[in-house]
Amino acid sequence: MNIFKFSEREIIDLTISVLAIAFIFTYPNFSMIVFIISLIAVGSGFIFHELMHRTVARRYGAWSEFRAWYEGLLLALILKIFLGATFIAPGAVYIYKDYLTTEENGKIALAGPITNVALAFIFLILTLGFKPNSLLWWMGKYGFYINLFLAGFNMLPIPPFDGEKVLRWNPIIWAVFGLPLIGYMIYMMFW
């Protein structure tokens, strides 16, 4: 399967998911500037995370495509609007192959959080390279925070999160990547 081929449904599902996520992260203080920052910082983290799962799965010969979970997006909107809570479950990459080894499944799972870590450091460069409180500085700061948070959240060692699959494959790799990311996530939740 071509790793760069997208079905029409996948493009629609990714587009709707990323727009919904950006809106949720900007509500209730919506402005076009904040929406664009959210779209780039959060949207890129979400899309590249999911596409990396998809790409690695395809490299292992599996069929894989992103599918939005519209009920989860609706629930996320309701939680944000009525309770002010941000919990997003936009969908997932669906993977099918007659047999995936535990190692293949672990590597597919790890690809998403590693992508978020790489993006976090790209966004960190923006904070270092631009004047504090400028638009690009804020985009960098927000992108750094949200991508490390997403990586930590996804490395939780409970199903259906990526961390559970990585831990089942290789506990040492999970500890090296997962523990610092989860620690960062917990720190940021209470900081």
Automatic annotation (TrEMBL):
UniProt feature coiled coil, ranges: none
Transmembrane feature ranges: 73-96, 108-130, 142-160, 172-190
GO cellular component: plasma membrane
Cofactor (UniProt): Zn(2+)
Single Gene Ontology BP annotation: proteolysis
Chief place where the protein resides: membrane
Membrane-topology annotation of the record: Multi-pass membrane protein
Single GO MF annotation: metallopeptidase activity
Location in or out of the cell: Cell membrane
Keywords, comma-separated and alphabetical: Cell membrane, Hydrolase, Membrane, Metal-binding, Metalloprotease, Protease, Transmembrane, Transmembrane helix, Zinc
Family, per entry: Belongs to the peptidase M50B family.
Protein name: Peptidase M50
Species: Methanocaldococcus fervens (strain DSM 4213 / JCM 15782 / AG86) (Methanococcus fervens)
Lineage: Archaea, Methanobacteriati, Methanobacteriota, Methanomada group, Methanococci
